[in-house]
Amino acid sequence: MRTHYCAQLNENDVGKEVVLCGWANSYRDHGGVIFIDLRDKTGLIQLVCDPADSKEAHKIATRVRDEYVLIAKGKVRLRGEGLENPRLKTGKIEVVVDKLTIENESAPLPFIIGDTNVNEEIRLKYRYLDLRTKEAYETFELRSKVAIAARNFLDENGFLEVETPVLTKSTPEGARDYLVPSRLYPGEFYALPQSPQLFKQLLMVAGFDRYFQIAKCFRDEDLRADRQPEFTQIDVEMSFCTEDEVIAIAEGLIKAIFTASGIEVQTPFRRMPYHEAMENYGSDKPDLRYDLKLVDVIDIFEDTELKVFRDIAQYKKLNRIKALPVKNGADTLTRKDIDELTNFVAKFGAKGLAWVKVKEDGDLQGPIVKFLSEDEKNRLIERCGVEAGDLIFFGAGAKKTVLDYMGRLRAEVAKKLGLIDKDRYEFVWIVDFPMFEIEEGEVKIKALHHPFTMPKNVDSEDIEAMTSEAYDIVLNGVELGGGSIRIHKPQIQKKIFEILGISDEEAREKFGFLLDALQYGAPPHGGFALGFDRLVMLLTKRDNIRDVIAFPKTQKAQCLLTHAPSPVDPEQLKELHIRIREPKKV
Amino acid sequence: MRTHYCAQLNENDVGKEVVLCGWANSYRDHGGVIFIDLRDKTGLIQLVCDPADSKEAHKIATRVRDEYVLIAKGKVRLRGEGLENPRLKTGKIEVVVDKLTIENESAPLPFIIGDTNVNEEIRLKYRYLDLRTKEAYETFELRSKVAIAARNFLDENGFLEVETPVLTKSTPEGARDYLVPSRLYPGEFYALPQSPQLFKQLLMVAGFDRYFQIAKCFRDEDLRADRQPEFTQIDVEMSFCTEDEVIAIAEGLIKAIFTASGIEVQTPFRRMPYHEAMENYGSDKPDLRYDLKLVDVIDIFEDTELKVFRDIAQYKKLNRIKALPVKNGADTLTRKDIDELTNFVAKFGAKGLAWVKVKEDGDLQGPIVKFLSEDEKNRLIERCGVEAGDLIFFGAGAKKTVLDYMGRLRAEVAKKLGLIDKDRYEFVWIVDFPMFEIEEGEVKIKALHHPFTMPKNVDSEDIEAMTSEAYDIVLNGVELGGGSIRIHKPQIQKKIFEILGISDEEAREKFGFLLDALQYGAPPHGGFALGFDRLVMLLTKRDNIRDVIAFPKTQKAQCLLTHAPSPVDPEQLKELHIRIREPKKV
């Protein structure tokens, strides 16, 4: 129907007859001539409907209102001197219309397109209007381009995209499953996959060697700001590979994705053992765009007069005293800032936030200074590498709590002092995760990894010291994804289940088919997954996951556009052999 | 871990040190030397473990059994004269092993890999073994390549891949939905999409202009041989387009897909109005690889002595008398063949199958000939274009029944006479579908199209004559997909709902959000979908849809590998506010 898209036209097209299609972004009558800004996915162009050129087109133009759908035939000409619009890509030209068709009308809109002050609920209800902005189109254009780039990279590296089932059985991620009642098998249910984990491992057993999929995954969890009930991940698995080889593929993939987004990144990325990330940054997803680092000072306080520190310093394995030196902090952080930071860390279990400033003369100042010996002060200054004008915060207490709140303090200070360069991309692999997490006497597999993760030192007697061949990729403090080398030998798998207290029966019921598969010649294999929605969010610098999903759900898992979920016909439930459980009457 | 894949090696690699990884496809001890055929995704290569080369490797080789996972280091050499294996791509070479690792063992297999005589249930239960054949790998390799080619073609043509929700509301295809109970909204359910139809239309309203998706779709129907509960379609939609423009994109896409599969196809494809397809081929998905065609002969029998034909010929609108002339049929079809074909059409409602043969002298022969006048015979011979040695079948009766069984007869005769060239690809667009189907007084939308299809002559009083801007693409008698131009004006949509007897209330409840969207400036738009599984099936010449799906379900919608569906924990149901409806006790 069209000869060009609106913003494809430029000065070189002057004199051309064109047909354009799109929406009336705005219109105005100026001295009997009607000017319409016509919009399509590429942008805007000005249409001129002058009765001197075409009476008929002008007459139709008088009926045009916001968001009417138009087809306009006309000739491109230069705007007159002084009439150019430098804010518009096509601002030097306009189209003199000789034929105008109103292809469809529009009722008055519930909100102005692009108005971000409109309540999100209204925007989600009319998502098709919310998506009419240039910004939205460009976000989904990037999302599409990035997916193509990812696929082409993986294809070129010998990976096959294989689709795994959506109607399937529970997977081992341990979150809550979405269930689908079966019509043919009364009382039985499919589960929607939390990931293609088991299937991709089975494809390795099948000898497919290199698999990937951009896969929909499902978790029926209470939603945080950056979670959705269904999300997309780039899922990769390969055989006969070492941890280094998997990491190299992941780096190549990330590089291809960023290149497609116009961002150059340097590979290989740095790697950091989990232990180091926790001790130095108080997080297993450290943001390395700024230079703040925690310093271990517990040994300095072994015999200090400051009783609370001295007591804590007696148990070096269970406790931590961490310093966070802040360059120029004595000058840049006000008393009010420090109070706010004290309140901030209190939310995460800190019982206070000790601090000292380094004075001009090099001596320390602050509420705790009077308890410190000269030797302690000197060792502190040396250990933290501080000088005049700097400030040191202290966190002291149980290891886990201190690392957590000092990590958060680090990020908060960086934010407060504007230390974060938004244009930097700092990637880091976190490696050497502990295999198990021991909490209140119970052995758990380390968060985000599953019981098929290969341990590095499986024969060790000390399960606390056992690390895993798992790796997470972190960008600017956000976990993009991760993976592991998997267990491919039945006897190792058996041992891990034993340590985890998973009985043979439970293991068989949940993962019996995987355990079977491991018996028939499973190759060594491993892989990773990247959260695709979050990746697109970072690439487009949007801060809401809903901005990068075409038809998102609310944090309460509702689609306000289609009204899903919704009640269904009782006949449907009957066919599915279920009934609704009526709430108990009180 | 490896330096090469097995079948990458050839004579040029002689002398090279290599490391290979894979499975013991077979092994044999020949005079104290062990020969192992090592297999990976690329194929086989022979490993030689001679104690004269490495005592240790040979010792390990004695433990190797079928499907053990091996890593072999060694040197490539030419096989001796007369020892070459011409059936193997690597048959001129072998690898002399100096280091062999058994990376994993394998229990004895439940069946021999690649044995197609094994019961399908067993093969599906151990799908990861069933997929270990070269044929399976190549099928999924093609599937992956074809998907990449489709995406790149659409990307290059300005289409964005946009993911639409899986947890959503009922869509208008009218098949049974899979439902997902909501945990947060007691008594409410999501539905899995039967297609992204409504969402893709909303994306057009949003101004996205060109959308595609390779999308999972779901239908809870009783399964035929070529159906699965979840299937994949290439789904496309575009704005400001004519039927011709959509068809051109579909043809470009199909061409790109076939080219990626090594098959050249010529575009544009021919087009055939629905009416012509039905009258000439007795099917709206005619197989055009062979030259058989139905001929209308009802007028010839208006005054015939053959009473049954004469009676039928009195009602030309409701009835049909169709001839199927078969070149050389008098010689190639035996009496037994004709009896079989008579039984065949009887299954589809034929009350008999009249036939005549053309004798050497040009006269006709057969049970009905004695009732025919000279004039009728001459007109028949001329109309059907038959000559000596040919045969004509006749179908007579109610239009729908006759067209159906004569269409099936046409295909069956082609099969019997070996007229089908398996290497030909005959595409045809079926166009100008009637908009409505009137069955027993009830107006229905024509099968496979939905109530959003644009009628061609909406102001016609005769709804039977109303055709739609819908088009199906047929390849070799198989429907690959289809689409339509959609209704974008609320008033036309309203009229169609009226004709269909869909009340305002019902329309609002089911598609309210689409009707809303049409009010806010919906552009003209249309699109299509191609069945991706079926396409891959045709491209790989497999005749079972399960062969092209990595983890398929049985015709009873079960996954025999994971045992889905399966019972779940009663606690889970409680959280979802449902209970199982116990079967009535008799």
General form of chain A: globular
The CATH topology annotation of the largest domain in chain A reads as BirA Bifunctional Protein, domain 2
Number of helices of chain A: 16
Q: Largest interface, per-chain counts?
A: A-B, 123 and 123 residues
Low-confidence stretches of chain A: none
Oligomer: homodimer
Structural class of chain A: alpha+beta
**Helix percentage range of chain A:** 25-40%
Instruction: Describe the strand arrangement of the main beta sheet of chain A, using strand numbers.
Output: 6-9-10-22-21-20-17-11
CA-based gyration radius of chain A: 30 Å
CATH class of the largest domain in chain A: Alpha Beta
Main sheet attributes: strand count, strand direction, barrel closure of chain A: 8 strands, mixed
Query: How many domains of chain A, as an integer?
Result: 3
Distance between the termini of chain A: 64 Å
How large is the share of residues in beta strands of chain A?
Answer: 15-25%
Please tell me about this protein's structure.
Two copies of one chain form a homodimer. In chain A, 47% of the residues are buried. Chain A has 586 residues and is of the alpha+beta class. Chain A has 16 helices and 23 strands. Chain A folds into three domains: 6-104, OB fold (Dihydrolipoamide Acetyltransferase, E2P) (Beta Barrel); 136-273 and 428-549, Bira Bifunctional Protein, Domain 2 (BirA Bifunctional Protein, domain 2, 2-Layer Sandwich), CATH 3.30.930.10; 290-420, Gyrase A, domain 2. Chains A, B: The record marks 30, 82 as: Important for tRNA non-discrimination.
